[in-house]
Every structure is written in C-alpha cells, then in structure tokens.
Design brief:
mainly alpha
C-alpha cells in the first residue's frame, strides 16, 4: 500500500517548508501589501465619495434654502410693485377726478357769471327801451327820478328777478 520512505518524506517537508518560506517572503508579503494598499485606496475613495456626497447634500440644502428665499423675495417684490401700481393708479384717478370736478365747477361759475352779465345787460337795454318808450308816450322828458320809478315798475311787470338776478341794476 503505502510505501513509506523516510528520506523522501523529510526532503518533501524541507522542500515544502522552503517553498512556503520563499513564497511567504517574496510572494505572499508583497501580494498582501498590494492588497492592503488597494484596500486602503478603495477605502479612501469611499471616504472621499462619502465626503463629496455629504458636501453635495449640504450644497443642495443651501441651494434649496436660497431658492426659497429668492422666491419669497420675488413674491415680495411683485406684491410691492402691485401695491405701488395700485397706489399710483388711485392717485392718478383721484387727481383726474379732482381736475374734472374743478373744470366742471369753473364752467358752472363761468356760466353763472355769463348768465348774470347777460341778464344785467338785458335789464339795462329794457330800462333804456322803457325810458325811450315812456318819453315818447308822454312826449316830454322825464327827470331821472321819474325814469327810475317807471323802469322799476316795468321790470316788476316783466319779472326779470325770477331769472336769477339778485338786486337791481
């Protein structure tokens, strides 16, 4: 069965031991060092990736916060612009109304002045015509007291005062 040769077995153990020592010294050590270095580089890459991810999350948070602030500021600017536009429109409308009211009031006053002047002129013409007619009817010249009395009577009959003229001309 098994043939045991002690010499071959010793030389096999010695060869195996030397082979393991050589492999351990020249192959396994450098291989282990290369594996450790690679493991360290991978770990460094993972750490850097984690730091980058953390930094990206922080920047994303800052971006979102800044975006929220910018939107709020934009909304505030829009609201202020609308308010300023509404205020300006109200001021312009109010000013236009005041100006229109003033123009209408001035026109009414001018119409009233023109009406009063026309009525005064009409009274003077009626008075002159009445005096002329009275003078011709009586064929004599009246003194100023009689003329005034006759004018007042004629005007009272015409009811010129009902036209809106205050007092006598």
């Amino acid at each position: 069965m098994l043939n045991q040769q002690w010499g071959l077995m010793i030389w096999t153990f010695i060869t195996f031991g030397v082979s393991v020592f050589i492999l351990w010294k020249f192959a396994f050590g450098p291989l282990q060092r290369i594996i450790d270095e690679r493991r360290a580089r991978i770990q460094e890459s993972m750490d850097a990736a984690e730091e980058t991810r953390t930094e990206a999350q922080r920047l994303l948070g800052e971006y979102r916060q800044t975006l929220t602030q910018v939107r709020a500021e934009a909304q505030e600017i829009l609201e202020r612009s609308r308010a300023a536009g509404d205020k300006a429109r109200e001021e312009l409308t109010g000013e236009a109304r005041k100006q229109a009211d003033r123009i209408v009031r001035d026109a009414h006053q001018q119409i009233e002045r023109d009406k009063n002047a026309a009525l005064r002129e009409l009274r003077h013409q009626i008075a002159d015509l009445t005096a002329l007619a009275t003078e011709k009817v009586t064929v004599r010249s009246l003194d100023s007291e009689d003329q005034r009395r006759l004018i007042d009577e004629a005007l009272a009959e015409l009811e010129v005062d009902q036209l809106g003229v205050e007092g006598k001309a």
